[in-house]
Fold this sequence. Notes:
The complex is a heterodimer. Chain A is 26% helix and 21% strand. Chain A is α+β, with helices and mostly antiparallel strands. A seven-stranded mixed sheet of chain A has the order 10-12-8-19-16-17-18, sandwiched between helices. Chain A is globular and about 75 Å long. Chain B has a five-stranded antiparallel sheet with strand order 4-5-8-6-7. Chain B has a four-stranded antiparallel sheet with strand order 9-10-11-12, sandwiched between helices. In chain B, a hairpin with a 2-residue loop joins β10 (180-187) and β11. In chain B, α3 packs antiparallel against α6. The interface between A and B is large, with 59 and 48 residues.
Amino acid sequence: MQINIELNGQETTIDCEVHETLLAALRREGMSSVRFGSSSGETGASAVLFDGLLASSEVILAAQANGHSVVTLESLNTDSSLHPVQAAFAATGAMQSGYSVGAMILGTLQLLEENPDPTEIEIRDMLSGILDRETAYVKPVAAVKQAAAVLRGEEPEPFRPLILKPMTDGVNPVEVDPDDSPPMASDAIPRLIPSSEVPSTSVVGQPEVKVDAVRLVKGNPAFTADFDIRGLLHAKVLHSPHAHARIISIDDSEALSLPGVHAVIHHENIDRVKYASGGQSYPNPKPHDQVSFDNKVRHVGDRVAAVAAETPQIAKEACSLIKVEYEVLPAVFDELEAGNQDAPVIHDEVDTVDIADRDRNLVHQIFAERGDVDSALKNADRTYEQTFRVHQVQPAPIEPHISTAWLDSDERLVVRTATQVPFHTRRMLAPLVGMDIKDVRIIKPRIGGGFGAKQEMLIEDIVAHLAIATRQPVQLELTRAEEFYASRTRHPQTLTYRTGVDSEGNLVAQELKLVGNTGPYGTHGYTVQTVAGLRGLSSYNCDNKRFDCDVMYTNIPVPGAYRGYGAPQALFGLEAHMEDIAIDLGMDPIEFRRQNWVKVGDEMNIAPHLGEHGTTEEELDEYPKVMSNGIEECVAQGSRSIGWHRRHDESWINPIDRPHIRRGLGFAFCMHGTSIPFLDMGGCSIKLNDDGSFNMLVGATDLGTGADTVLGQIAAEVLGVPLEDIRVYSSDTDVTPFDTGAYASSTTYISGAAAKKAADVVRTRLKERAAMLLDIEIPCSIELRDRRAWAPDGRSVSLEEIALDSLHLNEQEQIMGTGSHVSPDCPPPFAAQFVEIEVDVETGQIEITKMVMAVDCGVAINPVTASGQVEGGMLQALGYAHCEEIVLDDKGEMVNPSFGPYRIYRADEMPKTEVFLVQTMEESGPFGAKAVAEIPKDGVAPAIRNAILNATGVRIDELPFTPERVHRALKGS
Amino acid sequence: MSKIISYQRPENLEEALSLLSLDNHVPLAGGTLLNANEDMEPLHLVDLQSLALKGIDNSNGKLKIGAMTTLHEIMKNSDCPDSIRLSSRSELPSTLRTLATIGGTIASCDSDSQLIASLLVHDAAVTILNSDGELSVPLQEVLSEPERLESELILSIDVATDGEFILESTGRTPTDKPIVAVATRHCSDGYRMAITGVAATPVLVDPENPTASLQPSSDFRGDSEYRMHLAKTLASRTLNLLNGEK
Lengths: 973, 246
């Protein structure tokens, strides 16, 4: 059929199928800004102005749109300039991945058309239909306000951090005056507390606009789905309806006969090559318990077969025609039951080795001890034991997993894919498809959120197999439901802490016993649990520590990497446990922690034993030490902001006008890691162009985190140029240097150091060339700044002149430099997490009214992107604590695989969210940087738990804090 | 997206009814539910957008809302009582509210719908068109016989606009679909109360004994016992608030 719409002001006729959505039709017309998030339209990523109103095009049939007007973001792109709304989103750092920014900008246009001076409530209501996992909506709200101001003819303040005076000397605590309040500023403005130890810089430390801002605010093609290839086939996966079953037979004949089907693959026609899908360094931790298609399925949603066809609809229909006979087996879902004698054995196949005890479904047993915990506990003045349970949640990136594979002209395999780990993916994929690594190329374009879910070689093998089978390009995009049940989740765990203290409240022993649920495949099971132990036992000084962990197979949807990677789970338990000990000892909870937390110079005495390749005590010369720690300033700033003094104010806790409400404040001390020492490595190369600009190639993976920008800033600082003179290209295994990828909070610290090294090499050569041109004997006396090379006597030559001279005129050469970096250090960032809540003691409903995180991440290379990371991390952590959960029925099927039933926070219900960046100078990091990416995930859940305790006197040691759970806990007390 | 066999957009009610009388022909209102459902059987869609069923008329002491009026239009219309406007706003987020219609919302019979609960307590009556002509049916009757809508068309909804109204709800987050919500209206002839999340659809209950004969089902957001507790608690709260008590 044909439809006629007014598209961006032009009468347009579009051919479409009767079942086609407006989203699909618009994308075929080249409107790449309109993006898929879910077929229910909940994400809003597909929103357009439909007759002038923001509406999700995923739930509008193209046929319905006949005769209507449709406006997309492309309507603003009439020339190279930015519309004021686009400029505001760029200037305020309001987009991270930018996947949904088209919808946000269109919504802003609509809102400001109706009301040039909207209230924050109205702005948040407009944003309510656009789900965002990245920004906590903080900076998008600011962007709308800024755009409104500009369109009203006002001149808004430049979007810059608010510089605050330190409240402490960086070492000692202070008493916070209850009447003292921080200066007022928009929540979106990061509060920056500088350190006198940090030298001044020109580009580093500045709130530079992201290097990909134009591409994103214009909705230009940037994501995997935005790139068309001729002859593209579409893949669909047939998933298991059973949690545990053998495949007795599989008949694909009817599927293959369906017109439009080009290939059907499954265990009978794909080689059985063992692997583990977690995107990790070589060698992937064992066991290698997966194959592309197995003759056994181990969770509801496990892959059974895949089809390549001319349309997604044909592929889906073909999947329904594949006849599979199953022998259904018993299943087990709880990690505490998986080891029982009567539990089914999940990996009984002979070709999976290195399972610790397959008959008990025990994948790994992880053990590490310092000192003598048993003896110390026996001699302690008091001992405490508590058990906590944490649940399964999904990272839920708004862009689902998507990969496209094809054979290029040289018949090399190319995969363009939304991945955080292009180099690991290349290495892992090649043997699965029977190719050499050199014949495989992985390209990571822009990604619409990853958060760890894309730290996996998840679907690349499927599209690769199909591309090889059909000799045509093949694309697979997961549906939202598949993203929930067939990608990766956080590991559920049962954690038991035992702690001994002496009579003065010092920790003398601490043990963490952990049972981790890795689902049916090992993937990240070993490393996540190890990190849980590392993070769960590193925050506090104690001579006797022990980690004892069983990692169990079960039949739940597969856990994998998710931002925080074991730390959110462990810190929920640890910070709840420490709170309760403090209260029992009659000590202030912060004071008790302060007495025990690690300080500068303290050893991290369990860390080396719980690395990815654990080290024994005998192998170590010394233990790593904390070299920078701004926690006292973090606590001071956070306490003041949250109003910590109200914690025991009965009149505040019990508001007279609302007798069913109790208010509470909660705190958690957070310590995370920065990269994996001796393992994470990043490379960079930089070359000089004719005009004095530079191309920088990095293997590092920008997920929307701003990595490209941050790395560019580091290079620009070294080379004395503005950021715009560094053109960054990243994450292409044929072109860019190696990088382990975006995980372990390593990009700024490791890849940034590599960028700095490469820039240093280039700088040296530039100075030498400048010395030649300026006739200077000592090149090192030359300084680079403002795009020029300056001699001590004030003469200078431009970088462009150096470039032209070196490329064309004299002793021609390409000035370029490479660098790579791996670190022996893992300097921890620290943070103070505070929350304020209200509890309805009659219903159990909790409302979080304020979240504050004050974080020491060393020097924030870009305070806007850094604070954005903290905001987005807290949003996800809030969901983890409060409302997100994967719910399985008794047969292991997920009952809520869609947004709505799987609840994530919307813009119009977010608590007030503030971020403080406390500077310290971490000497081992580029320009003093430490990590900031994951620590925001760690403190919200325990802080809320502790706030509930403050408000009601009730302890809840299981997540999430749903109304029913809270109600039962209150009733039980 | 379900498998759609055909799409038609009738220009008048007669044509629409005639199409809907055919097998597997279903009405398409805003499409937020139908188009989002990937698992339905193959369907023929009958798009209602050209039937002039939009509009809000506040004359004659009652508010008449055309079935194809969107929740966004209701939210924005000052002729609608605040209670109905707020319920429309909270029913769906911005990008779906501009598409979803009041007729489609009623036809969904969503047991969690605060808007349906609000309409119930505002004495909503639904004007339905079938082969015998137009008739006005109380909303609670429509909800108790949802299958009638397979061959009938909702034309409009009449609601009372007087009285005071309170809505109390409990959800996982402030804007979540409620686990249970209680809508109560105090008008000249007494109280009306409706509760969501305790039956197959939102139900009118006796304000003096709101949980009598309720047998809610359990799901992961709340089991039956908890839902009964919420119903009692929130019902009492709405009455207290309407009576000026705390």
